[in-house]
Amino acid sequence: MILSVASGKGGTGKTSVAVNIAISVGNVQLLDCDVEEPNAHLLLHPEIVGEEPVYTLIPSLDERLCDHCGKCSNFCQYNAIFAAHEKVLIFPELCHGCGGCILVCPKGAIKEGKHRIGTLKRGYKGDLELVYGELEVGEPMATPLIRQVKRFIDKSKNVILDAPPGTSCPVIETVKGSDFCILVTEPTPFGLHDLKITVQVLEDMAIPFGVVVNRAGIGDRKVYDYCNGKGIPILLEIPYERKIAELYSKGVPFSLEMTEYKESFQSLFNDARRLAGK
Amino acid sequence: MRQVTVLSGKGGTGKTTLTAAFSVLAGKAVVADCDVDAPDLHMLLHPETIERLEFRGSKLAVIDERKCVKCGLCREKCRFEAITESLKVDQFSCEGCGVCTLVCPANAVTLNERVSGHAYISKIRYGFMVHAMLNPGEANSGKLVTLVRQNAKIVAEKEGINLTLIDGPPGIGCPVIASVTGVNVGLIVTEPTMSGIHDLKRALQLLEHFNVQSLVCVNMYDVNESNTEKILSFCKGKGVEVAGKIPFNPKVTEAMVRGKTIIEYSPKSDAADEIRHVWEKISAVLEYKN
Questions:
Q1: Sign of the dihedral through C-alpha B244, B250, B256, B262
Q2: Among B20, B93, B186, B236, which is least packed, fewest CB within 10 Å?
């Protein structure tokens, strides 16, 4: 079973929910796909057992073979190659690594070189495996690194994917292939607005989903009205409690100290599995 | 023109709440919502749209079934696993690179431009607002942010407004980079949590990388005062100015529910007071720089 945790709005509690499920259920592999700001390790405190650089492929030009025909530059959809009369400029951070420039070059002047975009880390907390990526600061593209994190998916385990905020490409890359997605929201106008956008994404992708309302008690009732109206199951409510916020601030998953929640997270996971038909 | 970007690294620290409050305090500004995939600022500023523009930011491969000879070369050469086993284009994986159009021996694949969102220019009570909405699930949010910032520039020049306030998206990737390049000041809003501190450090590195002066503000500082102290001493060590620390106040959420900025909803609250203080610091830095 592959379960993703997403939200639209940032700071609603995705990582907290993902980690609390992970420590409440057995045989878990947690993949933190928020490679721009990975935070799951700050709650889990794993022992890191492996670290490797992640590269994307970028063009590397052999000046001696290039006759400045400009075909590579014309082909590139991302403006990552600029061919002037005398000189070809390559912008690695714009390159998506499609390899098209190599295919169009009539002189065979372009080979592929490596460009480091981040680091992949793997660790354990007991038998819970954590894999996460860390994007190099200044690198714009998160998706190739997310793809690398997801290569570690071990289908024999209960796989939990912690998604980045938003609704664009990094989120799509994360939730793609999930059996079920938990959407964490808060009962406020911002929470509701961003929830609606994320619901549309998941409906388009045909991924079944349910909602967790975090900080229940603040804001208003409109998230509930929306979910009821659309028949979206609300799988768990986590009340707004200062103790939960304080534990989070210290880097402690709250179900460790408020053990009554362990069962809530177990049934959340079981509900997700049942709704996914797994 | 002076430009300030409010950013955070971590989501949900209060970027939009602060940007909206600043827009009231600034008196007259162009306010740009650069969180184009989950924009929320309009719910506090209630823009009246003057102009709506189509955003054609990405392309999508389309296979003409009648011409396709089922050779599978497109699937083999695609680096994004965007061609399915049955040789259909998976629109969620296609990055519009065009390699498939190149390798297809039957000329069956074309790249089509798609409208992947809209940009808006609007009037608000305290000036103008430029914003956008990326269609759910679309790529290229960085390009749309660039369009929003171009619109901000056009409006500011046309209306003779010399301040642009930018509400940035969370993270440090392409839409954030597009939101901070070339601005005078980046205000990083953080919270006194382990994640807040971790993400603050990366956001500071990002501003440094792009040569943008940084200011820091700690939101909900009283949720964990010892972490707040850690942030303050970290900033001091780095020579980064802390523009203020805002207390947790449920009135901030109440204001949001009523579609108002905290400055309008509860002007005498401790949170509003401290936000005014933060804004004074930002203004001072902007004056100094000019």
A1: negative
A2: B236
pLDDT, tens digit, 9 for 90 and up, residues B167-199: 999 999 999 999 999 999 999 999 999 999 999
Q: Do both A166 and A244 map to the same domain?
A: yes
Q: What is the pTM of this model?
A: 0.95
Fold of B2-56+118-289: Rossmann fold (3.40.50)
Instruction: Kindly state whether residues A141 and A41 are assigned to the same domain.
Output: yes
Q: Specify the DSSP class assigned to residue A188.
A: S
Cβ within 8 Å, pair B9-A37:
yes
Measured distance CA(B36)–CA(A192) in Å, rounded: 16
Which ipTM value was assigned to this complex?
Answer: 0.93
List the one residue out of B7, B178, B172 whose CA is nearest residue A135: B172
Q: Phi/psi at A161 (nearest 5 deg)?
A: -110, 120
| Antiparallel, parallel or unpaired: β B117-124 and A209-216 | unpaired
**Could you tell me the residue ranges of all domains in chain B?**
2-56+118-289, 58-114
Angle at A84 between CA A81 and CA A88, to 5 degrees: 45
Q: Does A48 touch chain B (CB under 8 A)?
A: no
Whether chain B has a CB inside 8 Å of the CB on A139: the answer is yes
CATH fold of B58-114 reads Alpha-Beta Plaits (3.30.70)
Q: Each residue of A218-227: pLDDT tens digit?
A: 999 999 999 9
Element (H, E) at B96: none
Q: Do A69 and A170 have their domain in common?
A: no
What is each CA distance from A21 to A12, A184, A262, B157, in whole angstroms? 16, 13, 8, 52
Are A103 and A207 within one domain? no
Q: Check whether residue A38 and residue A140 sit in a common domain.
A: yes
State the burial class of residue A252 (Cβ atoms within 10 Å of its Cβ: 0-12, 13-18, 19+).
middle
